[in-house]
Automatic annotation (TrEMBL):
It holds the Pfam family mTERF. Keywords: Transcription, Transcription regulation, Transcription termination, Transit peptide. InterPro entries: MTERF (IPR003690), MTERF_sf (IPR038538). GO terms for biological process: DNA-templated transcription termination. Belongs to the mTERF family. The keyword Iron does not apply. Signal peptide: none annotated. Gene3D superfamilies: Transcription termination factor 3, mitochondrial (1.25.70.10). One of its GO terms (molecular function) is nucleic acid binding. It comes from Acacia crassicarpa. This is Uncharacterized protein.
Amino acid sequence: MIRLLLTVSRRFRPSSREIAAKPSQAFTSATCSTKCLAQVTEVEEDTTAQSTDPVQVFRKWGCNYDDLDRIFKRNPQLHKADVTLLQSNLSVLSRLGLEAPDLVRIINCRPRFLLSSRVHRHFDERFPYLDSLFESKELLKRAVVTNPSLLFYDFNKIIKPALAQYEELGVDKEDFLALICTRPTIIIRTSFDEEKLEYIRKTGLSQDSKLYKYAVAIIGVSRVETIREKLSNLANFGFSDDEIFYLIGRSPLVLTLSIEKVQRNMTFILTTMKFDAKTVLEIPRLLLINLDTLMKPRVLLMRKLQDMDGELEFTPSSIIRAVRMKEHRFVQLFIESQPGQIADELMEFYKKAKEFKRLAGLRKKFVQKGFPF
């Protein structure tokens, strides 16, 4: 009986090889399953991050943290942007050769640009035309950064008719493309009627003049009512009709100035500088110069120098030269050239004259009337 029990127990006893094998197999199986689970989890998390996080999309496209900070400050809604839409629009910019700094400028100008589905829609049809129109990839990049809406415009209904209008007036294609880079609204806002064409003729500029294209573009994008108001404002200072258009021919940018700016500059020129109104006909820049941060502080400083030295006298030509100087040159010539204590006093006076603009600017109310011209 005892022999039978021993025999049976030996039959069911596992061998040492089996005992060694079983724990090893169990351990290996558990280790493999743990590794695979970890890998799958990591891949799923990475895929999820790439597909749902706009930050990762921007980073992958080439934006650094400074770029992202500026982009999200300009439009916080991009934090929640649809990633698929975002990737499609960024791929369009990549095809144009644009990079992160260009994107920052675009978002600063058009905060909702990347949220529009129109960016990539029909881009394959528009791109060949834009490429052939600009002929230079660099010029196309400049134009898109200046006016991203170029990617939306219908070239048959909008771009081609605008180009045809300028070519009819003697502005060739090369000049037209250069204007697009400096005047973003030239395509969508240009219109000409008989009154505007008469204004262009009155400037006396020939089509060969370098200023002609600017005069045409500024008058073309401006409202007729606005032009009339600005002409009337200049007439209030005693300018005849011929003198006004002579001034515009000398500097077409005069038409881009607000009525308030022209009034303030002209008042200062007449009352403080004691110049004749006709001076601006020969030096139009007097109307363009910033009154509060440049012209007024410099003229007041020169007046103070005259008060400190009764024999010192500044002629109109010397005042104009001083106003047109570079900042470091003006400071060196009129302030740093004086003895120590006097130079300190003049520098403090000059700084206070400039700071007055900042205080006034905080109280100024801006009324937005839409397009400025």
